[in-house]
Every structure is written in structure tokens, then in C-alpha cells.
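Students often ask why inverse folding is considered easier than folding. One informal answer: many sequences map to the same fold, so there is more than one right answer. In these notes we will look at a single instance of the problem. The structure comes first.
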């Protein structure tokens, strides 16, 4: 089965869809136009679906067999101005597909079209997850809660992400831990305000905050093994209104990123201990809020092995990169990987000759659209082969 040829035959249609989505980005769960576009496409193709997690969609192609594989795409954009000069730049000020979710959605639609056209040859079922709000809270937990992994029960989940640091026509895979877990946090330090000329009459929350920020870095550098990845980032600090006024409060916010569950729990515990210890020793008070966010994304060994073999067959072994290091970024696909054997890989979308090298989450981000057919062919081949050999 030559899935790359099948994908090439619908490439122009898919590029048109991708550009339409890119011109009309939507955020979070407010994906009303995007969701309707997906539903209209599925309806024309005769693929059954239902709405889930608000503007999310779960579709299913029923083949001949008991196994079920799920393929996932995220749909939301970012609150960012598109500064590209091209015919398909965003038409909505302050919103942009700066992370390739328009391509992900398009690839899954192309995959759906091809697999549905040959469903009598498929040895099982293919579910299609169109996820909202990946860039915010993640739609995956809601989709799981609302039963997308059941009826029929899903045996494995596969997803992908376009990457500008990989040339179009290539793919990459990191076995085992692939993405970090995250815990955003907010620390409010409460002191006693007063005149800048009389600091002895105050409890200065800015000085306390400075000590807290420096000390938090010691948790990673001196308490986590240097061979293991972990990050504590302070992203903002707010306090004060004038140069000669010592404020009453300072608020610090940041995020913890870890690759191991034991480090995740340890750092959360130590953050509280360190902050409370410093603040109390300096006569202040504090309020600490640590959020539970995305878990670590883990690639199943058997699925990774299958991916490397099938990708090599499709695009050549030299175009399949086996990555040594995970990314400290986060991915809501991780919620699926916590529930079922999963595979998440990188799809090359860069092209240095065309100047398509700008990073994701930047206002100049774009993709080499030739990656779309490769992504479609990869998803089709992986789903077909998984069901054939399960």
C-alpha cells in the first residue's frame, strides 16, 4: 500500500484547507469555525462523529476487526500577531497558528479521507481525536473524561507535531520520556510597606522575593541529580508602585518542569519548604499555589520500534532521526499517554532554502507545506500496520 502516493493525490486539497485554517485562527475552546470546518469535511466523507469537550470532535472509521487505534490532532491557535508576509497570513489581529495546529488538523483530515476510502481493508477501527485548547488547559482530560477512549476501547494512540528544526521530508522520534511534566506556581509574599528612606520600619517583600528567587534555583542545581532534567523558571515578578515606596506585597509566578514523577513531587514539596523557610525567617508571610498541569509524555517502546521501521520503509532510514534528548516543553497528548500505549513523533516542516526556519510560538512561524503529505502518509501507514499486526 503506497500511502505516500495516496497523500500526494489529495495534496492540493489539503494545502487549501491548511491555509484556510491558518487565515482564521481561533483560541482555546472557542473553536467554533474550526470545529465546523472539521465536521463539514467529515460529513462529506461519510465519517461518523460526535462532539466532545465543547468544540472537540471524536470521529470513528469502522473497519473489520476488534482492535482500535486513535489518531489525535490539536486545533487551537495562539494569542499572537502574525507578522508573516504571505497570502494566507492570519486575518484576525492578535491570533495566529504559530505552533502548527492548523497543519495537524489538516493532516488528520487527510488521513481520515484516505483510511475511510479503504475501510474494508482495515483490520480494526480508527478513532480520530480533534482536540481543543491544547495551548491552554488542554482538551485531552475532558475528552478522556467524556469517554473517547471507550466504545470501542482504544488500544493505542498516535500523535505528531510539526518541527521547524527538522527539514521537511524527515521525522524524529524520542523513545521513552519525550516531553516534560509541568506545574505552574504563584507565590505571594506579604510584608509591611513603608517609606523607602526608613526600611527598618518595614518588612520588605522585594528583598524577601529576591532571596526566594535565588534560593529556588538551588533545588535543581544542588538537589536533583545532574544527569536528570528539571527546570524551575521564574517568569514574572510584580510589586511596588514608586521608587521611594516599599510595597506590602510582591507576587512571583513561574513554572516547574520535570521528566520524572519522583522529581516532580520532590520539587513541589521543596519549593514550599524553601519559600516558607525564607519568608518566615525574614519576618514575612506567604501564600503558595502550585497547579497540577500536563504530565510527562512517554512513548511506548513497542510503538516506537514500529514507528522507526515503518517510517524507514516510507521515507528512507536516513530521513528518520532517533533523538537522544527529550524536550522540556509540554504536550497535552501526555494525558492520552497516561491512559493507553502511545506514540508521539516529530514531523519535519522546516526548509532552510525557503527561509522556513523561524521557531514555533513566534510571529514569523510557518511550515513547508510539503510536510503535510508526509504526515498524512505516516499516520495512515502507522494506523494500518498497527491494526494489521495486532
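Output (designed amino acids):
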Amino acid at each position: 500500500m503506497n500511502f505516500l502516493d495516496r497523500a500526494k493525490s489529495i495534496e492540493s486539497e489539503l494545502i487549501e484547507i491548511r491555509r484556510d485554517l491558518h487565515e482564521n485562527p481561533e483560541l482555546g475552546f472557542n473553536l467554533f469555525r474550526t470545529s465546523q470546518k472539521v465536521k463539514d469535511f467529515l460529513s462529506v466523507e461519510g465519517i461518523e462523529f460526535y462532539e466532545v469537550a465543547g468544540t472537540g470532535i471524536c470521529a470513528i472509521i469502522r473497519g473489520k476487526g476488534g482492535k482500535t487505534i486513535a489518531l489525535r490532532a490539536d486545533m487551537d491557535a495562539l494569542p499572537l500577531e502574525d507578522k508573516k508576509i504571505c497570502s494566507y497570513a492570519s486575518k484576525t489581529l492578535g491570533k495566529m497558528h504559530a505552533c502548527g495546529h492548523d497543519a495537524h488538523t489538516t493532516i488528520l483530515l487527510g488521513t481520515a479521507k484516505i483510511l475511510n476510502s479503504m475501510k474494508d481493508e482495515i483490520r480494526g477501527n480508527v478513532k480520530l481525536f480533534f482536540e481543543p485548547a491544547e495551548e491552554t488547559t488542554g482538551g485531552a482530560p475532558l475528552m478522556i473524561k467524556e469517554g473517547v477512549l471507550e466504545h470501542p476501547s482504544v488500544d493505542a494512540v498516535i500523535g505528531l507535531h510539526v518541527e521547524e528544526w527538522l527539514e521537511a521530508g524527515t521525522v524524529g522520534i524520542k523513545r521513552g520520556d519525550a516531553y516534560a511534566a509541568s506545574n505552574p506556581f504563584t507565590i505571594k509574599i506579604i510584608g509591611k510597606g513603608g517609606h523607602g528612606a526608613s526600611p527598618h520600619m518595614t518588612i520588605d517583600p522585594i528583598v524577601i522575593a529576591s532571596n526566594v528567587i535565588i534560593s529556588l534555583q538551588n533545588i535543581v542545581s544542588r538537589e536533583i541529580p545532574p544527569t536528570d532534567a528539571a527546570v524551575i523558571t521564574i517568569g514574572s515578578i510584580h510589586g511596588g508602585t514608586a521608587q521611594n515606596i516599599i510595597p506590602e506585597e510582591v507576587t512571583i509566578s513561574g513554572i516547574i518542569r520535570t521528566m520524572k514523577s519522583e522529581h516532580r513531587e520532590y520539587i513541589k514539596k521543596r519549593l514550599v519548604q524553601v519559600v516558607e523557610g525564607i519568608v518566615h525567617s525574614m519576618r514575612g508571610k506567604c501564600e503558595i499555589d502550585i497547579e497540577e498541569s500536563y504530565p510527562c509524555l512517554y512513548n511506548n517502546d513497542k510503538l516506537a520500534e514500529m514507528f522507526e521501521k515503518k517510517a524507514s520503509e516510507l521515507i528512507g532510514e536516513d530521513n528518520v532521526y532517533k533523538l537522544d534528548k527529550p524536550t522540556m516543553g509540554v504536550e497535552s497528548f501526555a494525558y492520552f499517554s497516561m491512559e493507553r500505549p502511545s506514540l508521539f513523533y516529530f514531523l519535519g516542516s522546516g526548509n532552510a532554502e525557503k527561509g522556513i526556519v523561524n521557531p514555533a510560538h513566534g510571529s514569523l512561524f510557518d511550515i513547508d507545506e510539503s510536510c503535510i503529505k508526509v504526515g498524512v502518509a505516516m499516520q495512515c501507514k502507522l494506523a494500518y500496520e498497527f491494526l494489521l499486526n495486532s
